[in-house]
Amino acid sequence: MVTAKEYEGQVPAWCPGCGNFAILTTFREAMAELGIEPHQFTMVSGIGQASKFPHYIRCNTFNGLHGRTLPVATGLRLANHEMLVIAVAGDGDCYGEGGNHLAHTMRRNVNVKLFVHDNQIYGLTKGQASPTTGEGTKTKNMPAGVISEQLNPMALAVALDCSFAARGFAGDGEHLKGLIKEAVKHKGFTLVDILQPCVTFNKVNTYEWYGKRVYRLGPEHDPTDRSAAFTKALEWGDRIPLGVIYRRQRPIYEEQVPVLARSPLVRMPAAAPDIGPVLREFF
Amino acid sequence: MVTAKEYEGQVPAWCPGCGNFAILTTFREAMAELGIEPHQFTMVSGIGQASKFPHYIRCNTFNGLHGRTLPVATGLRLANHEMLVIAVAGDGDCYGEGGNHLAHTMRRNVNVKLFVHDNQIYGLTKGQASPTTGEGTKTKNMPAGVISEQLNPMALAVALDCSFAARGFAGDGEHLKGLIKEAVKHKGFTLVDILQPCVTFNKVNTYEWYGKRVYRLGPEHDPTDRSAAFTKALEWGDRIPLGVIYRRQRPIYEEQVPVLARSPLVRMPAAAPDIGPVLREFF
Amino acid sequence: MDYTIRIGGAAGQGIQTIGETLGRVFARTGYFVFTHQDYESRVRGGHNYYQIRVSTQPVYASRDGIDILVALDSETIPRYEKERTKRAQVVYDSSALKKTYEGPAFVDIPFARLAKEHGGSPIMANTVATGAVLGMLGMQLDALLALIAETFSKKGDAVISANRKAAQAGHDRAVDQCVTCSFAGKQEGATAGRKKRMLIAGIETIALGAIAGGCRFYAAYPMTPSTGVMNYIASKAEQFGIVVEQAEDEIAAINMALGASFAGVRAMTGTSGGGFALMVEGLSLAGITETPVVIAMGQRPGPATGLPTRTEQGELQFLVSAGHGEFPRIIFAPGTPAQALHQTARAFELAEKYQIPVFILFDQYLADSQWTYEDLDLSRVKYTDYRVRGRAFSALAQYRRHAYTANGVTPLGVPGDAKHLVVTDSDEHDEAGHIIEDGETRNRMVEKRLFKKLPRIQKEIAPPLFYGDPRPDVVITGWGSTYGVLREAVDELSATHAAALLHFTEVYPLPAADASGYLSALHKAGQTICVENNATGQFERLLRAETGFEFSGHVRRYDGRPFTVDSLVKELKGKIKKT
Amino acid sequence: MDYTIRIGGAAGQGIQTIGETLGRVFARTGYFVFTHQDYESRVRGGHNYYQIRVSTQPVYASRDGIDILVALDSETIPRYEKERTKRAQVVYDSSALKKTYEGPAFVDIPFARLAKEHGGSPIMANTVATGAVLGMLGMQLDALLALIAETFSKKGDAVISANRKAAQAGHDRAVDQCVTCSFAGKQEGATAGRKKRMLIAGIETIALGAIAGGCRFYAAYPMTPSTGVMNYIASKAEQFGIVVEQAEDEIAAINMALGASFAGVRAMTGTSGGGFALMVEGLSLAGITETPVVIAMGQRPGPATGLPTRTEQGELQFLVSAGHGEFPRIIFAPGTPAQALHQTARAFELAEKYQIPVFILFDQYLADSQWTYEDLDLSRVKYTDYRVRGRAFSALAQYRRHAYTANGVTPLGVPGDAKHLVVTDSDEHDEAGHIIEDGETRNRMVEKRLFKKLPRIQKEIAPPLFYGDPRPDVVITGWGSTYGVLREAVDELSATHAAALLHFTEVYPLPAADASGYLSALHKAGQTICVENNATGQFERLLRAETGFEFSGHVRRYDGRPFTVDSLVKELKGKIKKT
Ligand SMILES: Cc1ncc(C[n+]2csc(CCOP(=O)(O)OP(=O)(O)O)c2C)c(N)n1
Ligand SMILES: Cc1ncc(C[n+]2csc(CCOP(=O)(O)OP(=O)(O)O)c2C)c(N)n1
Ligand code: SF4
Ligand code: SF4
Ligand SMILES: [Mg+2]
Ligand SMILES: [Mg+2]
Questions:
Q1: In sequence order, which residues have a C-beta less than 8 Å from that of residue C197 and are 6 or more positions away?
Q2: Residue of A nearest to C426 (CA)
Q3: Cα D451 to chain center, whole Å?
Q4: Cβ(B44)–Cβ(B73) under 8 Å?
Q5: Ligand in nearest proximity to the CA of D45
Q6: Quick one: which H or E segment has residue D234?
Q7: Most B CBs within 10 Å, among A97, A104, A148, to test the B interface
Q8: DSSP letter string over A213-247?
Q9: Minimum-distance ligand to the CA of B124?
Q10: Are D256 and D295 in contact (CB under 8 A)?
Q11: Contacts of D518 (CB under 8 A, 6+ apart)
Q12: What are the CA-CA distances from residue A13 to residues A49, A94, B243, C288 (Å)?
């Protein structure tokens, strides 16, 4: 059996007290409990504090560009759909710079597991507003405060028929671990938006702030009812639901690409095919 | 009084029978009825068949890049918020290449009027699938058919709290004209998705196909109820609702930028300000 | 024999069908063919043409004079009045053009009416026109009739026979009516003993080269003139085991390709300048992560949208310097469809061997132009698997994705094939692939990625082709798609000058100057003229930047049209100083 | 007097506060100051430093030897052991570092304890440290005490007085304890009669230059090292009537700027290489639509994410050739904060005058480095409104946005100001701005946009700065941010060589070679050495591409760190051949 210890990678460069630490520990535990070994999965990330995550986990890693996590993950899955592909991104990364990829990856339903460390701020670049930053928040480059309406990732996911959309909280490790495991086991694209306190730049959405508001969704919420899921997704403010907001089982992309029924691309011969016969078609 | 004739621009390069012609006529009529003169508005478009639209209307025009209609329109409005800014795009343009801008422009609620000529296909590049192309549709580069789930622009708009989201149909000119006028008068970002038959490349979603399915939304639909609007937005297939799916009046971006309360930027002096006093701060 | 046929008409009228059918018929009957296309950025209407040169001698480019003009719209005849040769014949349907032209040069054939009468439906008018052209040339119909049977095999015998009748009607009418045709009767019996040839365009051979090179993953966003690569590969994807993915935008396309490449397969993307502009960040990502990728870059006139369906050699400099930071790359610029096939296949080899991005830089002209070949030599396609897979990977004692090596290349491990972890990063990283901050590691990585690879990469680059007079007074230099027209121009110049062609298809890095002595050849020549399909002389500047060499003159065209032999020769003659 | 102070510690410990405070105090007391920073891409922890050079003579760069080392973390002391000069003193708090160092070079001051005892709170430890450094230098506290009052004016008297006490405590303890300090006592009275100086960094002057140049719209996406421009402009946006917009991505940023510019205001964006990669398509759009835009491009080491908080001159070639298609541009690369101000303001003038994109190409080094000035000459900032507005626009008989003109520039009408329509297009267009397909219009538009503008643009370009021996044997050449260090290096070399500096701040197009005779100066020199903060010698290549000139040698640094005087001089001496 693989233990959480075996996932320990580089020493994190996060600020002391950062919510990412809790996610890191929880993630390692979840993977150990799932019994997935380091070489059996690949993590793809972008650029930001959250995107340093794979360096702190022992695993195959493609730490790419800011915002471009999902296309890399998609390419990986299409080349090797026997590989578990996990994508990690920040809220700026994934909802800002990379918003278009998120929308279209949800539509594709590629079997990628996306975890967004949502600290409602741009951490690494020192505190600008992200799409999930609350309206009115003042930053150095927005001294008059944020004007744009706060993005609701869960509502977006329901609108795009995301196969699995859930919210976790760095401060509720047990629950988050369950979500991570559920997401990994779910067949289809999964988005887990993880509320992650940034102790340095987000002075509003702190552990305490979240702690007062979050609650675990109970069985009364039916995540397969899309309209109900949408209404639930809109809940934010005094009470913030944690758990699976929306779930729809639909065929994954990889299974619908005819050629992949044969085998993963990476298992096909690494050799030059004979194109002689098709050349004949040009006579 | 300005007449529809005064908006006549270049000779359209569309295919005979293209749904764009109907939209063109309707648009000119709507503008004439609104009494907005050609120089009083600016049209921004991208690249595609739809995006040729402003050349066929006499008006100020910035025909930019594929997918980049909305940022240009936003810049225009922020520089001159007394100018009516109309954005025209194709479904590929706006939901594909430019998807990220659409999401964030909705959040901003810049007072731009967006019309998407949604022919559910890439017209100008000869018939590839767009985000709104139906699943299973076969194209030259997708001989096995479209796998990704069809994007629902109205659901997306509701999820992003778009100030005004409506659906029109090129084949129902009267109704479309009403929508165009309503959108122009609405204060806030408006998305009008116009079902537009592409007679050359979309052999599924024809005038007839739409004609059988569309119906005008009646007063029983309350576009201000977000959850109800979402449920209505999901309606697609046998019956396709036309009209305002969602409406939420909220302050426009331009009014919340403190400096714009003074005057539009373009009315401020075109002269070098004296930075002498702020230089003192570096002593 | 050397005839030029131009079919003019509106988009959607079927000029492409006529053109492709004629070209195929000529190729099958053993002629040499060269075709090129001129079309607008619209789906119906406007004015386009398809031009075919057919000859008993090898042909590599289009000529300026039109011998047979097929006019499907009313614009065709007045528009090309000056381009008609003395022997030219114009074939048209006066009822369609609503105008009759007098004089022996005009052959009025009622395409639509004959189609209806003989084929049964006016939509076969193009078949009538095709038959008519063959009739005017005095050619027999056999090859066309056979092609019709193949083309419509799925539509059944009735359609086949109707089209055959329509073709026959057009043919007969032309033979009948075109008594003054200067071509008539001359071709009889000429086909005997000639070999069938293949007719193939650059866009198809790029796709074929990709398949031959072992491409397993192609992600792209549609954009003229690259879309044909995606279409062709998609049409063969099941057969060859390839995934073709239409990305949501070009940024996604290149990042998907990098993801697939990292996972262990050969991956490619294709686009044009505007789409490539969006891939530039991803290119740089390929650079620092040392992830192989092949990029088919189809040029068209810019800036921005420019003239989307036309041709230009305007992105050479853009590609040479694209990307933030410094990393190696290779740029191939094929001059012919055959070269496009071989270079694309080789692009995959080199991309994987050096773990770098490799470009196929083509343009609308090469993409759409068809050439004839007796065959294409597939024995030259090589495949070496540079990845470490399966048991070989497991057998390694340890693995670090970016370990320093003597030659700068670290084996590419396939993630998941062994317990070794494969880690890479867009940040500057250590040998294991993890983020670093120190200057020493940075220096070593730059040495590994850049300095160690560069000289080896340059050794792979083929020298330019030298053609013509071995001791030339005048050296005409060019690169990429202009090969054919430059070659023919040099042939013509040779009548009056000691002229030679120096043609580059591997443009970056430039081949080592001493390897083939091309630089000294240039220095020796009295006059050197660089011919480019752009406004600023990008190759000229590249050669100066790399070698300091200064051309004595240049010819540049930037109106979105390709060079044609006659006008180019004229322009070159004007430039060549009398000596 | 010429001292170097380095403050080392982890991110978040306040080394920046100490550094900035000391720099300000020195500048106010009339010293010449140069500061630079070295930090990691993280928010807390790791190891960073802030380096201050303070002198009674003008200083333009950092030296290698440290005279006073302020150690806030345990890494500082061992890390910089070799960089300490003979006279160096290390000041630290043994209780914070959990270690005591013996010997006369070490001054152990309990920063935190003194802060608590005198100021009341341990968070004032940095104030103690700041006071201590002044004490070690034998300087008086007046300027610091005044600065404390200003800094904390909003926090009230209690905070001010506590900080003042803390500063005093640090100062006194240093004076007391640092009896062997080689600096002690030397500075007394030296400030008398000296002028207050301003202390300002490149990133601030770019922002100030933008404001001075009439920037009304700034759209950007955060990215080191450009974010400071956005932050500064935003802080003054209300005062000067500017809209600062944080875009969803860089593509949006440049397109927003173009929209605003089209609407009639001066617009700008800023980014670094990776973000600029995403703007390349928009750049080309600016090119074909002839829409003025200013782009602040802050270089950092690539490829891709690279070393995000460090410095490099790695994007010159990228910028020269960025964009599909061919269109003019200007690239300024300021060498000093003062130049950055003037060039940024001028960028707006030239962008609007020629309707082209103009770049301010800087780097992390210039961005973060602070220089002292007596003042900045604002009289050199010019503003000409090149737009046609209001009544003047209405008064035109007709208007076509892209009408051909003798000099290629068509007046920029403000949409809505008159009944004239303003129409532009990313497609090739006619004079009115509408899509065209014909070659003739295309040719005329290329002539208008490119050929007619180019020679006039080149005339605007300032010649390089020539400094040093008027008849040099050795010419050191550089561009952009290296100005200061090259100047000091040439000063040092001058002791032994006839050396001069040729420094370019307007790098593209290059100034006309004959205008200032720089090319002949290079040709005349026995040795020419090009110094660049990159791996491949991008300026060297540019000069060769444009002029064919070949340098005799070069010095390149690409580890992400800036050049410093002493090591550069050493390296240069190694390169200079003995004659
Ligand atoms: C194309 C590009 N633009 C901008 C940046 C600069 N950048 C790095 S991380 C970041 C935002 C970080 O915010 P987020 O994604 O929320 O991650 P966090 O640091 O908060 O975890 C930005 C803007 C970049 N690296 N690349
Ligand atoms: C960056 C970029 N990528 C690709 C293209 C090629 N292109 C032009 S129009 C178009 C799609 C057109 O589809 P849509 O937006 O739906 O407009 P339609 O023609 O259907 O009206 C594409 C892919 C381009 N011009 N620019
Ligand atoms: S800045 Fe915020 S998100 Fe980044 S490491 Fe620090 S606490 Fe965490
Ligand atoms: S291709 Fe389709 S959308 Fe384009 S003009 Fe023709 S019918 Fe209209
Ligand atoms: Mg964040
Ligand atoms: Mg469309």
A1: A283, C27, C28, C30, C31, C32, C33, C372, C373, C374
A2: A64
A3: 32
A4: yes
A5: 3
A6: helix D227-235
A7: A148
A8: HEEE--TTS-TT-HHHHHHHHT--SS-EEEEEEEE
A9: 2
A10: no
A11: D463, D464, D466, D502, D511
A12: 8, 21, 52, 22
For B27-71, what is each residue's pLDDT tens digit?
Answer: 999 999 999 999 999 999 999 999 999 999 999 999 999 999 999
Interface contact C243-A79, CB threshold 8 A: yes
* ipTM confidence score: 0.98
Amino acid D205 reads T
Cβ contacts (< 8 Å) between D544 and chain C: which residues?
544-545, 548
Shortest alpha-carbon distance between residue D231 and chain A (Å): 4
Encode chain A (283 residues) as per-residue pLDDT tens digits: 799 999 999 999 999 999 999 999 999 999 999 999 999 999 999 999 999 999 999 999 999 999 999 999 999 999 999 999 999 999 999 999 999 999 999 999 999 999 999 999 999 999 999 999 999 999 999 999 999 999 999 999 999 999 999 999 999 999 999 999 999 999 999 999 999 999 999 999 999 999 999 999 999 999 999 999 999 999 999 999 999 999 999 999 999 999 999 999 999 999 999 999 999 999 9
- Is residue C117 classed exposed, middle or buried when 0-12, 13-18 and 19+ CB atoms within 10 A define those classes? middle
Return the C-alpha torsion angle C41, C43, C46, C48, nearest 10: 80
Centroid of chain to Cα D86 = 32
Query: Using one digit for the tens of pLDDT, what is the confidence trace for D435-472?
Result: 999 999 999 999 999 999 999 999 999 999 999 999 99
Contact with chain B for residue D207, Cβ under 8 A: no
In terms of C-beta density within 10 A (0-12 exposed, 13-18 middle, 19 or more buried), how is residue A192 classed?
A: buried
- Which of D73, D70, D100, D77 has its CA nearest to residue D4? D70
Q: Is C133 helix (H, G, I), strand (E, B) or coil?
A: helix
HSE of D284 in the Cβ direction (CA atoms, 13 Å)?
Answer: 30
pTM comes to 0.98
Whether B15 lines ligand 4, by a CB cut-off of 6 Å, is: yes
Distance CA A46, CA A88 (A): 7
CB C219 within 8 A of CB C256: yes
Q: In a 3-state reduction of DSSP, which class is residue D431?
A: coil
- Identify the residues whose C-beta falls under 6 Å from ligand 3: A 14-15, 18, 20, 49, 119, 123, 198-201; D 43-44
Q: Which of D33, D27, D8 is nearest to D18 (CA)?
A: D8
Tell me how far the alpha carbon of residue B121 lies from the centroid of ligand 2, in angstroms.
Answer: 10
CA distance C145 to D130: 95
Do residues A63 and C430 make contact, with C-beta atoms less than 8 angstroms apart?
no
> What does the DSSP 8-state code read for residue C379?
G
Pick the closest to residue D324 from D287, D361, D350 (CA basis): D287
Helix, strand, coil shares, percent, chain A, to 5: 40, 20, 45
Q: For residue C300, with 0-12 CB atoms within 10 Å meaning exposed, 13-18 middle and 19 or more buried, which class applies?
A: buried
Gap from CA of D544 to ligand 1 centroid (Å): 37
Out of B62, B275, B283, closest to residue D259 by CB: B62
For residue D563, CA distances in Å to C323, D62, D366, D566 come to 24, 8, 12, 9
Give the whole-angstrom CA distance, residue D169 versus residue D117.
9
Per-position b or e across B66-79, b if 16+ CB within 10 A of its CB: bbbbbbbbbbbbbb
Tokens of D332: 């300024």
Segment holding A60, helix H or strand E: strand A60-63
Give the distance, in angstroms, between the CA of residue C415 and the centroid of all CA atoms in the same chain. Answer: 36
Distance between CA atoms of residues D510 and D316, nearest Å: 12
If DSSP codes are grouped into helix, strand and coil, which group holds residue A161? Answer: coil
Nearest to C258 by CA among C232, C228, C292, C231: C292
